[in-house]
Amino acid sequence: MPLRLSTEKSTKAGLTVPGVPLEWVSEAVEPQIGKDLYAVRVKIVLGDIHADVLDKLLDLSDRHGGGDVRTTPDQNLVLAGIRRQELSNVYEGLLALGLADSRVERISNVLACPGRSTCNLSLTSSKGLATEISKVLDGRPELDVKGSSIKISGCPNSCGQHHIATIGFHGVGLRAGGGRSVPFAQLMLAGGAENGIRRMARRSVRVAAKKAPQAVVKLLETWKAEGGTATLDDFLLNLPDSRVKELLAPYSEVPSYEKEPEAFKDWGESDDYNPAMGQGECAGGVTDLVNEALQDAENTLKMARELIRQSFWKDAVTNAREAATHVLRAGLSNAGEVSNGWAADLAVWEKFYGSNEALPGIPPTLLSAPVADVTESVARELVADAGAFVEAVTDVYRWKPERFKPAAVVDSQEGGDRKIPLLDLRGSGANQAFVKVKLKLELLEAGQEVEALIDAGDPFRSVPASLRTEGHEITQLEPIGNAEHYSLIVRKGK
Ligand code: SF4
After folding, report:
1. What does the pLDDT look like over 419-455, one tens digit per residue?
2. Which fold has domain 111-264?
3. Which residues line ligand 1 (CB under 6 A)?
4. pLDDT higher than threshold 90 for residue 351
5. How far lies 390's CA from each of 331, 350, 361, in Å?
């Protein structure tokens, strides 16, 4: 039976419990509708509770409540059906179990998916980051706002609900100079699924995982200083992306490895970061980076259209260009390429999709340099062109995915004495190398082989594992020379 809590402030007004801190009563206790009963929210840090403690909690509920302990979507627990005169006993029981923290609904009670603790799809340590953010906010009670949320996933799959958080993050691994990988956190802003709000968070900037707690503090401090009477959710909803970029720029940069090696480690890990993925354990299944980029394009386009409606011509144009960039990025992911900026992205798109008749050409308005003084007609034309481009590419991907295949670019050495094709992937990142080998295998028959030259480090650690997960067989993995590179031979599975 659903638990029905009263949302009327008056039903709780004046509720005091002798010997119990008022703060706990006002934050953790909720009247249930229609009965003289109360529900008590119990903060469970990161949703982890030891079996012994859970046993004792059930016992507490049996003795002083209705024997009813429920889980909540935000990783906490609720003891339901408690009479008013039993509230002090419940409080004492929770205190003894170390569970009487009243800050159940504060932003410092961060939600996170299991991430690297158990999930092999995880790109970064979601629980590690959540713990650090909570720690930082514990020391800043003036920023520990109620009614907003921070939610973190270790990858874009969103088991940690980052898409419906006031401040959300999902993990990404990026390549820095020297071929090293760095854990990053993709920021998502102003989503919501509480209090009658249903809103997808908008994609924002990426910050280094090690700097993400400071980025959160910066956003909260800015809201405190500039938000006036606006709630944090409303403030972030209306904070222009350009301002977010400016505010968080210091947290998006990664110094050299020599200068700051800690930035190259994930939270809670002593070794350098390695984004290797394997078989996942959770419902998230497979991360579809292409689909994700196209969804970003749709959301950004929606924003561009809204800005046109509000007559913000320049911001509308910025968003329209951004939407087109997301489409190019979808194409890049699909071809196992990484982004190197607008001009390089355009060239890669042209290389892989330029001759693909199923896909539209990039509108000339998007190719020309941005103009300083954007007029209404220019803005309208650009948003319309970007819209047509985004929608046409998305339609092909959704309804005729086989037509979204990248052109088979000949960068392998075949023929001559070679019995099997060779892909020289030295210098490619792990994900890039994996996609390239995968695309090549798609052209082969089951049982045929391909050889790939891959870098030591991340590609060596994760490409063979990911290919095995896909059902292929690794028949050779040998170091070349001084083991800076490896020769990997893969036999296509059935
Ligand atoms: S698949 Fe789910 S549980 Fe695993 S890291 Fe991604 S979001 Fe977290």
Report:
1. 788 888 887 777 778 878 888 888 888 888 989 998 8
2. Sulfite Reductase Hemoprotein; domain 1 (3.30.413)
3. 113-115, 119, 121-122, 126, 153-155, 157-160, 280, 282, 284
4. no
5. 12, 16, 11
